[in-house]
Amino acid sequence: MNIQVITVYAIGIAAIAYIIYRIYRQVTGKGKKCNCGCGNCTECPPSDNRCDSCKTEKEFQ
Amino acid sequence: MRLSDLKTGQSAVIVKVLGHGGFRRRIMEMGFVRGKKVEVLQNAPLKDPIKYKIMNYEVSLRRSEADMIEVITDAEALNDAISQDNQYSTSEAENIITRAIDRSKKRINVALVGNPNCGKTSLFNMASGSHEHVGNYGGVTVDAKQSHMTYKGYEIELYDLPGTYALSAYTPEEVYVRRQLFEHTPDVVINVVTASNLERNLYLTTELIDINLRMVVALNMYDELKQDGAQLDHKLLGTLLGVPMIPTVSRTGKGIEELFDTVIQLYEDDSQDTLTRHIHINLGNSIEKGVAALVTEIRKDGTLANYHPRYLALKLLDRDKEIERLLGNRPDYDKWTAIRDREAERIERELGEDMETAITNEKYGFIAGALRETYTPGKHEKERTTNAIDSIVTHRIWGYPIFLLFMWLMFVATFYLGAFPQEWIESGVAALGQWVGRIMNEGPLKDLIVDGIIGGVGGVIVFLPQIVILYLFISLMEDSGYMARAAFIMDKIMHKIGLHGKSFIPLIMGFGCNVPAIMATRTIESRSSRIITILINPFMSCSARLPVFILLAGVFFPNHAGTVLFCLYLLGIIVAVFTAKLLRRFMFRRDDTPFVMELPPYRVPTSRSVLMHMWEKAAMYLRKMGGLILVASICVWFLSYFPRHDDPVIQQEHSYIGQIGHFTEPLVEPLGLNWKASVSLLTGAVAKEVTVSTLGVLYAGSGDDTMTDALSQKLTEPNPQTGEPDFNKANALAFLVFILLYFPCLASLVAIKQEAGGWKWAAFSFVYNTVVAWIIAFIVYRIALLLI
């Protein structure tokens, strides 16, 4: 396998792992920073107090 | 932290004493003042009371009282100093606490309280620079929103609470706001009042006066009062109510500075005027006698630090369930209820009406008297204009066709106006694909970037203009007040299906995103109505489905694309109505809750609010493109690229995703769809936009001409294996209907599980929606085959 194939494999597997992680996070609620439920949150800063994606107020877990 | 949070042996310095009136004065007289060190000596066996040492003497406080004292520990002060200064040195150690206290004393917690649609969120946004969603109808804010602002050296934490008409325990919003006020004890409350509708708005003011909070009234939308020719002596009104009143126009920011100057004055207790004082609204001899009897007894308890005795007495007389629960464990509760029962019976006998009516009437009597002294009504021109427009748009016959006409115009305009910038972006995406294709060497990395990333993300990003335009129309309808009329005319239909107007707001929100819409159902009191509203919400077509609709409607129905969009949304509403009716008939007993939908006056939407709304949605869409859609596109490309096959024509067929697609293909074959469509439907579970990016990846990598054509053109090109295009008018229609109705995305399913209280409802939604989608898509496909 050449370097391009290895790179593409690494990117593809990382992307699949990320999607599986997101699904796991949404379904189980584990690892989430807020429980707004939208699953798109990247951060819920305390100063803002809201999910940065769906704008719903979160409760920290 | 609060004093009650300290453990035995810990010490801290007092920052401020919360609360108000007699309690605050008494605590401060005992030595609990800013800057004094306090140490926890002992927690009583049942953790109440707690023994403290302050100024070298021992004193015991109840936990509820200690909860009203804000303190700072050495560790907190040190962290604060480091985070603020970044140049902390040990030589300054002795100053750390003083500086931390100085900073803390300049922190003010301010709560915005007011009736629904009085402009609290507009004021909140204008003051703090936030971008919370506002609309010219009540119920937009369902939780407390928090924002931070710095003003004249003060750090102000601003809390925007949901709109409420009173502080009784009738609706969840009322209970929520009341808890926020009592449990979070804001330093100052801004009571936002619609200046042009004083009589009703001031009722909540009288409730807040009973609680005895430090309060300023913002007479919002004061420009409307002036335009109407009305006159208000707001200083005199403020004197009568014992509360400073500041005219404001939150849309333009007028009066906001004066409002926050007053907040600071109240916080620092250095108000120069003499009007700020706690008044007792006289409720007449009969009620006052009963209140006095209860107040005398409640005062003896002394443990209810953050509740004013008069407020508790009034709520006890009113038989407020929440207050009864709160006081239920007090030793004298039985004695209080005995007095209450005796006094309530006497009052009801004397006045000839029940307690609730008697108190409400007396309060409105007080408001009417205060307004007679201070307010001269205007010409009511705005009211006349509003009535004239309402006579048409809420007409019992014409109201419905007008509503449908507006909706149709919205979708037609969204499609046609968005087509121009869409073409530009499409050209840009194609040019980018060609350029990258030219500069990169052949190989899998080039294929990943061109077919996977540019093909996938580029296929979705081209619909940004339509999303923005759709939100322009939704913003205009919300801010002008038309959306409230839409809810009003729909109320009759909602009642017919066993729901009420309150369910309409979450359904309307569902056109944006189903997740916050499902969460907004929390304000519906009845559990059965709430679950029905949750379950029918995914049929409201969210904006994530719009790219699929525009893509296929634009390709296969170019001359009637707007009408197709309109019909799809309408079909979603019809299926939702039908589902609600079924659920009501077979699963839930009917339980009507009375609900009055307020019709606000029509207002010209401000460009700031509309642009902000559009920008928010565009930014969110772009963030999603750069995150989830990008990763999902890479996934789909990877699964369609490997394992490699010598024949490029059947490469995808033999890929991982091709195998998955062929496995699920039999399920969608009766709808005229192939394995590529079945895969894109599956990936839509992650987010509905991924459906388009999947099609983008699969069709970008299917031919030799990578990225020379837009996805819309590739869909009409013949499949090299069958010689026919994969999509035609009939199966495109079936695909559209299936996308509209099939299982919600994962985020929505999780929201359903959370709000409905279990996975069984999420599973029900998944199965029911998919079965309904399949049946209707099948019917549509068969009819389309006959007609087209």
Characteristics:
heterodimer, A: about 60 residues, mainly alpha, 2 domains, 1 helix, about 45% helix, about 0% strand, disordered C terminus, B: about 800 residues, alpha/beta, SH3 type barrels, Rossmann fold, Helix Hairpins, 5 domains, six-stranded mixed β-sheet, five-stranded antiparallel β-sheet, 34 helices, about 60% helix, globular
Number of strands of chain A: 0
Beta-strand percentage range of chain B: 5-15%
Oligomeric status: heterodimer
Distance between the termini of chain B: 70 Å
As for the number of domains of chain A, it is 2
> Would you tell me the structural class of the helices and strands of chain A?
mainly alpha
What is the strand arrangement across the widest sheet of chain B? 7-8-6-9-10-12
The major sheet of chain A is characterized as: none
Radius of gyration of chain A: 16 Å
Tally the helices of chain A.
1
Question: Would you count the extended β strands of chain B for me?
Answer: 13
Largest sheet of chain B: 6 strands, mixed
Mean pLDDT of chain B: 84
Which structural class do you get from the secondary structure elements of chain B?
alpha/beta
Largest interface: A-B, 34 and 38 residues
Q: In terms of per-residue confidence, which ranges of chain A show pLDDT below 50 for 5 or more consecutive residues?
A: 43-49, 57-61
Q: Which runs of chain B of at least 5 residues are low in confidence (pLDDT < 50)? A: 704-708
Return the domain count of chain B: 5
Globally, the shape of chain A reads rod-shaped
Helix content estimate of chain A: 40-55%
How large is the share of residues in beta strands of chain A? under 5%
